[in-house]
Amino acid sequence: xxxxxxxxxxxxxxxxxxxxxxxxxxxxxxxxxxxxxxxxxxxxxxxxxxxxxxxxxxxxxxxxxxxxxxxxxxxxxxxxxxxxxxxxxxxxxxxxxxxxxxx
Length: 103
Description:
Blueprint: H1 2-10, H2 16-30, H3 34-76, H4 94-97
């Protein structure tokens, strides 16, 4: 029975009574500090969003640099090596790591 209730909770099965019980427990636990808790929670969410925006900006800058390097290489006609992040690189095969055989 407990597992079914937990699955129902995570599947979006919370009704009005469940929300009322959670609100009542929140009032009991936090009491007068509830506005302070709300403020700190809001500040945390804002800081989290700022951090995500910073990561998105870094990714966009890196992508722009790669695109510009590709355009420069095409414009000059000379092949140039464009650095790609390590996550995008394909793993090297073991045969390519060994030195070429002397004939």
